[in-house]
Amino acid sequence: MSDDIILEVQGLKTEFRAEYGLVKAVDGVSFELRRGETLGVVGESGSGKSVTNLSILRLVPSPPGRTAGGKVLFRAVAGGPEIDLLEAPEEEVRVLRGKSISMIFQDPLTSLNPVLRVSLQIGEALQLHHGLSRREARAKAVEMLRLIGIPDPERRADEYPHQFSGGMRQRVMIAMALSCSPDILIADEPTTALDVTIQAQILELIKSLAARDRTAVIMVTHDLGVVAGMCESVCVMYAGRIVEKALVDDLFYDPKHPYTRGLLDSIPRADRTGKDERLYSIPGSPPSLVGMPDACPFHPRCPRAMDICRKAYPPETRLEGLGPRTVSCWLHAKERA
Amino acid sequence: MGRYIAKRLLSLIPVLFGVSVIVFFLVRLIPGSALQMYMGTQVEATPEQMEELRRIFGEDRPVPVLYVEWLGRLLQGNFGYSLRTGRPVLPDIVSRLPLSLELTVLALFLALLIGIPQGILSSLRKNPFWDVVNRIVGLLGLSLPQFWLAALMVLAFSGFRGWIPMGNYAKFTEEPLRNLKMLLLPSLAIGIGLAAVIMRYTRNSMLEVLQADYIRTAKAKGLKKRVVILRHALKNAILPVITVAGFNTGYLLGGAIVIEEVFALPGMGRLALYAIYQRDYPVIQGIVLVIATLFVLVNLVTDLIYALVDPRIRLDDSSR
Amino acid sequence: METRALRKNSIALTGLAIVGFYVAAILLSLVWLPFDPVAMDTEHLLEGPSLATGHLFGTDEFGRDILSRIMKGASVSLVISICATALGAVVGVLMGIWAGYLGGRWDQFLMRIADILFSFPSLLLAIFVMAILGEKTYNVVFAIGIVYIPQFARVSRGAILTIKSSEFVRAARSNGASPRFILFRHLLPNILVPLIVQVSLSLSVAILLESSLSFLGLGVQPPYPSWGNMLSAGRKVMVIAPWTAVYPGLAIVFLVLGFNLLGDGLRDILDPRLKNAR
Fold it and tell me: Would you place residue B318 in the very low, low, confident or very high pLDDT band (cuts 50, 70, 90)?
């Protein structure tokens, strides 16, 4: 693993046992994250993007779910040792959570504990990971509140989540996650539950804070606009697998996978769509993840499906581009970089 | 918060009022007037004496007037006189109150002490077999009649002196340790049913809370399991348990009556029972009023404790 | 998952089995009892349980067979509990439906009454009612029934309130359905579920209340056997003849447990289908 890479996911598989069968939520996902890089993970609901994140931190709820295979290699220090988060003992992983790898979740209303003060929720990670005293932790919490733009932070630190508005709460979540200056921040659809007007602010905040500490960010979203604004590289997920990986510029300029193309085409654009043209959406709906055959999962909806698409899953192919890029599609299987 | 308390206190008044009305009128429904009972012991009386007696017993005035008079006396602390002993009712009740209260409080304490940890522990066990065992044990606790448990205790512990009070008991103010030792078993008999209920509620509440998103957040922060459970989960899960415990305290009070009978303890419950056996109406009225008032107050306190623990209710006035 | 459904059902079924067993014993007792429950046998006073004498649970201080008295007592206790629960249910549900459906003033008034009744601990209320009505066996039905009125009122009112404002009632009304139609087709079926559960649990508590009252001498009067008064009598001789106290108590425990299991299991089975007011 090269020094530049802080996290490498190889062949991650996570499945859930449901009443009707085995759901392969994540079926062989691999990607790399560089230090300080912002990586986007795009996909529809059910594509497996959230589960991928939870799997990295081993937070998948264990009775129904189970990480079935793969490796998640984390190298905290450049040139230092790497550990496989999936294999390491629970205690070691627990120590890393919040300290080296943090996560923020989609719904700030339910993700914050309603009966605990905000200062405590922000500060407890500091107390745990950096050994601060309660007073020191509270002081730092107030500082973070100020940093994230909460007015009158000294007073508001002692308040409870329900006393904050939705956007503020998400800021608190961000403050909580970044309090220990982690190496990696995993943001699971942080703006989906928020008003459009607030979304931009939150994203700006994440961007500036991450830049300040050189935090690598995995930004999970279904919104390509977010990806365009924030990320350097992007992975596109479909039905539990990554179908295309590229630098953002490469992807937007020349999307290779038909699904990616479909996503881009679905974005309503004021300059392209004529007044009377219909909005484009990809026909069909995502497949059930139970009992998937060995084929390209997108083929039923793909405008360019071929015979072979029904018979085997396309191999991951490296392609030319501004940066590293791969695609899993039979259309490009012959091209080799 | 202050406004909340005031509001709740105010709402008590109509309820207590209603209670007093019911108590008064229901006792009057009892067949056979008090005057007749009194006359049963004295065969002769002159017309003047009858006149006087009728005035004393209130038979010359309409019932609503009697109620108002009674209420007035009540509010001044005059609960009437026992038909049997002639002593004023209120001081008698008050002197016996501490024992009954102690039994109830001890029972509540034991119920919480047993129920909550068991509930937490059983919510953490993943094995479904324990799930069923737990439920059955919980339901079993609910099925045990308190008096039977008490009787069994007497049977089992009759050899061990000091653990079973029988008519005599050490007052808390005089001999605290001996007092606690003697009241432990009776309180346990009263509280077991509630312990079972609390265990089930705690367990269910914890199971639900542990599914919440904020628990996932807490884990994502790398907090130790114990911290997650005790600081994050429990504080949320305990809320319905508080409500349940508080509202079931009345059940404990009722149980105390029976237990006092079994162990011959001179508490309020025993006083009530004998008053009923002997048709001592003023005493019955007084005790029922006191108990009902206590019960209502306990409900209020429960609501207040709940509001105290749940900041969403406490800080209702801030809406940003 | 299959096993989960089985587990849910097994609890209710076990409860049903236990209750069924008691009902069978009661039916049996109508035609046959090992001994006459009120017949005193001075030759066999306070004898322990033995197969030889045929007194499987022993005899009491009057030489009466305990097993027969337990069986007889079962019918008394069960009948009283059923009647009391029925009384409380009918009055309480009517109150609750009235309050919930009409709302406004009626709601406040009726719920105030329920609150006042609620402000008495159950046993105390029952004792109080018995004190007023007199210590006759049939009065126990009223005493316990009155205790239940507020509970049934609350449950049914809650169910009505939830349904009243729910989508499908609004849809029905916008389709022009008459109030009566709504009442029968929509409201009543939805009350049924929490009611059934409440009835089962109430039956269990009723048995406990009745036996407590009888134990205190305020319930079923001798010579009618009730598990409660058997225990009260047995208490005096308990130390030398523990079976007089233990067996009646066990009889109570298992029947109450049966109803509790039944109610709990039913709640499990029926609840996910209809997430009702609570």
Answer: very low
